[in-house]
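Notes from the 1:1 (GR / supervisor)

We went over the backlog. Supervisor wanted to see one worked example end to end before approving the batch request, so GR pasted a single chain during the call. The sequence is below; no edits were made to it. Supervisor asked that the structure be written out right there so they could see what the output format looks like.
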Amino acid sequence: EHIRNKSYMFRFQSDLNKYFGRYEQHNIIVALGMEMNSMKYDAYREVSRGYDPDRGRQFVTVSVGTYPAYDSGMTSNVPVITDNLSNMLSWYGSVSYSYENLFTLNANIRYDGSNKFGEKSNDKILPIWSASFTYNVADHFKGDWNCFDDLRLKMSYGYQGNMLDGSSPVMIIAKQPMDEHYGEYVSNIVTFPDPFLKWEKTGSLNVGVEFSMFNRRLMVSGAYYRKQTKDAYMEKEISETNGMSSYVVNGGEILNSGYDFSFTVSPIKTEHLRWYISTSLSHVNNEVNSLPAAE
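Structure output shown during the call:
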């Protein structure tokens, strides 16, 4: 087996980090950039049987007809050549603003373009974005809530896309040698065409709270998330007269939600000894709201 994998990445980025205000209580961070990725994968694979390293690193010759199972395996032992090229072009930017240590706002956006959907796809470029907010409640009300060492509220929402390797909007066939039964060259279908193939899109919402009390003797964190995926990649059954029994389409809608809590207590906290007791609770709910119909 011989594998050659080459990948290239070029990134151009500019950054800005600025404090301003009378007491420099405002801070803004900006990053803008462009990224190009290319990956070339070449492989050659062939299985050679009968290697005997104890006899001078040579291959043992087996006469045809001695072992029928061996003859059958050698007949189907055809070398495999793989040649893949994947390209991606991305633009991205992020902005973060914070006021003292009270709250932080963050926004990110990214545009990804790929050649994995073919020339006729009108969804080769997908915007990906996210926004988050963190509020330091304990610092904001310092002096009023002395029992809290730390209290933070967090919220974020993001929208992203996903690509599935091995699928294509056009038909991909593998050319095979001449078939002895038909006396002609034959081919096999590797990927069934789907001209409407596009990105799988997911929106994610996260809400959480973290706080500690009594000199960090009690620490609690809780979070809730909800993730909805549209145009999910799923197998669609088709008639085998098409050359295969199923192919991948954007035909599903999936909803994932759940929550998790963690509690940590430190009953003993001295200079030389600290004892922590922790426990956690989580719940996950997965729903498939739609499935592609068979043909």
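Supervisor's comment: The helical segments are 68-75, 137-140.
Batch request approved.
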